Amino acid sequence: MGTAKRRRSHGEGSVYQRKSDGRWVAAIDAGYVNGKRRRATGYGATEKEALAERDSIRNKLQAGVDLTKRRTLATWLHEWLTIKEGKGLSSTTLDRYRIAIDKHLIPGLGRFKLDALNARHVQQFFESYQGKARPASIIKIHAVLRASLSTAMSFDLVQRNVAKAVKPATHSRDERRVLTVDEAKVLLSKLSGNRLEKLFLVAIATGMRRSELVGLRWIDVDFDQEHLWVRQKLVRTSRGLEFGPPKTHRSKRPIPLSMIAFNALCQQRGLQAWERYMAGEHWANYGLVFSSTIGTPMEPRNVNRTFEAIRAEAGLPWVDLHDLRHAFATYLLDDGEDLRTVMELLGHSTIRLAADTYGHVLQAKARRATTAIDWAFAS
Length: 379
Hints:
- The chain has 14 helices and 8 strands.
- With 379 residues, the protein is mainly α.
């Protein structure tokens, strides 16, 4: 009695050899598309190759990739984002991807068929951005396109990653204007009496990011040892306000407190104690250093709005909140601190990033350093 042929389960697929040319075919049921049954197919020179192709097709279908149609880049980018959402990425990372995709890549390149997109299309797209966007923004958009095409290539949807052949020009990096000490004093004088005065003082005295400041907790401040720890951030995402880990692993760091920062935190503790007393039973104890008047997390955008009003009053319309972080770093470098120390205090991921960001300061330091040769040979 012969062995009964096993019935294939749904989605398992089949592998067979065509009589016409002897080529092996892998086919898997892809379900219904617009009311019609569709199959996803692949090929191999041998049965072993076809079996491997069948497994590859099955993995793509399970990942949510539609293999039944020739898609545009716009369609693929949305599919790719769905795949990334299933990888457990943070909300802020996914939001950054969505912005790059919906505001830039789809309007500029989305109409092209995915498998017809070429390096010239990509090059022209990024050339159109020169002078219209910051180099850092262009780099992020390019990174999203490159990553999405890399996934498409791994799924055999494209033969090559054309984004890798294009290097967006970044030499036009604008030299950041730095807040001078005198300008900082004017700005700080306008802060006096503002409820968020201590937040801005800590910002310029520690170089912390906005997300780190509004996420700072009292348990992360050590008044005895005079330092604080950056251990979490607070950001607004498409899901609402969310606490999460710092930007990178290096962003989780200790920061020694200067007297300015130490005194500001002491005064903030007193202010919050009064607000807690006034709120009574309405106080929400999140343990945050900088919170709303009832203890809840602050809306980050409101912090910016307050700062924008103060900078206008100080006659410094070009200054944004992030410039306080850059001012902190610049003052340290000008005072002789080495780049690696500044990098660690800022929580930069690499020393190269710090060097690129503060290249103008380093050039000035290098110029001053070369005068030591003149002094050495002076008679």
